[in-house]
UniProtKB/TrEMBL annotation:
Its main location: other. Residues 1-55, 177-212 are annotated as: Disordered. This is Membrane fusion protein (Multidrug efflux system). It is found in: Cell envelope. It comes from Biostraticola tofi.
Length: 397
């Protein structure tokens, strides 16, 4: 049936309308275009599976390059750090001395400000010196009195060395005279007794007897005087001991005067060494006690305390060079060397050491403080405050 209609159309085509002919031509063109597009699409669909079945080489090359770069970087890092030990647990340390007065009183002068640099012997503060000056004057007067008493004792000793021997000689002379008088009195008494009673009187006999008794008393007294005067050495030693006592008093007075002078000198609080004044706790007019804190003076001589892990100490020795970077100034590098390694971990010397004998023991890596002395790189115009964090790098040789 369709073929018949087609043949009829072909038969009638010569007599058909021109517009209908144009529409037929366009329809044929559209049909050819659709057929060609379908064939092209089917051709592309057949090529895509072939391309997917063959992946490209570019991702593999990129992966290989990344792996190679990582290997090179890791090898370089290992070669450059295998002879180095570093830690972030390190800080600037130094001597910080608390300045305290030796005597109490009111602060009348404050000569320094916060964080000011001072030299050894510079005046920091002054305490009211009037009480100390009065003590010094009193001690000076006591010394003068003691020296006068010493001079007097020395004169008495010199006098005793002459006087007491003379007194002994005089006492012995008086003893001889008394004994002679006694002999004369006894001779006179015997004569009176032997004389004819008619040639003498009882009164003469009694007088002679009294003369004998008096002469005997004089002899006893003279002998006693000799015994007293004979203690010449004892008297001289007594005078000498008095001189020694006075000398001790002079020495004591000198010590008191020296103490008073020291107290007066201690009213001026001075810097014990070069450094920087920190933590000022005093103002003019403050009443301070002996030993109370006024300032802290930080010494410019600083070092680094680095707490290395115990696993890093195997090849670490005193004298090895250290490069140090400061967190506060990243562009500033210090150079030093290991001074010493503490003979004990930080936890061992803490206020509450760990008790590992208990049953809840957990093994952790211990840290050991290492003292690092800075050899060069410090700037006097830019001091490093104590406690700053640093990063030391020990060169293991």
């Amino acid at each position: 049936m369709e073929n018949n209609h087609g043949s009829d159309a072909k038969a009638r085509s010569p007599a058909a309308d021109p517009d209908e002919n144009d529409r037929a031509v366009k329809a044929e063109r559209l049909e050819k275009t659709a057929t060609s597009s379908q064939s092209a699409q089917s051709g592309q669909d057949s090529e895509q599976p072939e391309k997917r079945d063959r992946p490209g080489k570019k991702p593999l090359i990129m992966l290989a390059v990344v792996v190679l770069v990582m290997i090179v970087v890791g090898l370089y890092f290992w070669l450059t750090t295998r002879n180095q030990e570093t830690t972030d647990d390190a800080f600037i340390e130094g001597d910080a001395v608390t300045i305290a007065p030796r005597i109490g009183g009111y602060v009348v002068n404050l000569a320094v400000g916060d964080n000011q640099r001072v030299r050894k012997g510079d005046l920091l503060a002054q305490i009211d010196p009037r009480d100390a000056m009065a003590e010094r004057d009193r001690a000076q007067a006591q010394l003068g009195l003691a020296e006068a008493q010493l001079h007097q004792a020395e004169v008495q000793l010199s006098l005793a060395k002459v006087q007491y021997p003379a007194q002994l000689t005089q006492a012995r002379s008086q003893q001889v005279r008394a004994e002679a008088n006694l002999q004369n009195a006894e001779s006179d008494y015997r004569r009176q007794r032997n004389v004819d009673p008619r040639a003498t009187s009882q009164q003469r006999v009694d007088n002679a007897s009294a003369q004998v008794r008096s002469a005997r008393a004089d002899v006893a007294n003279a002998r006693a005087q000799v015994e007293v005067a004979a203690q010449v050495d004892l008297q001289i030693r007594l005078a000498a001991s008095m001189v020694e006592a006075r000398r001790q008093q002079v020495g004591q007075a000198k010590a008191q005067l020296e103490t008073a002078r020291l107290n007066l000198a201690w009213t001026d609080v001075r810097a014990p060494f070069d450094g920087y004044v920190t933590r000022r706790n005093v103002q003019p007019g403050t009443l301070v006690q002996a030993g109370s804190s006024l300032f802290s003076v930080v010494s410019p001589a600083i070092w680094v305390t680095a707490n290395f892990k115990e696993t890093q100490l195997e090849r670490m020795r005193p004298g090895q060079k250290v490069n140090i970077t400061v967190d506060a100034w990243p562009d500033r590098e210090l150079h030093g060397h290991i001074d010493s390694i503490q003979q004990g971990t930080g936890s061992r010397f803490s206020a509450f050491p760990a008790e590992n004998a208990t049953g809840n023991f957990v093994k952790i890596v211990q840290r050991v403080p290492v003292k690092i002395v800075i050899d060069r790189g410090l700037d006097a115009d830019q001091p490093l405050p104590l406690g700053l964090s640093v990063a030391p790098k020990v060169i293991i040789e």
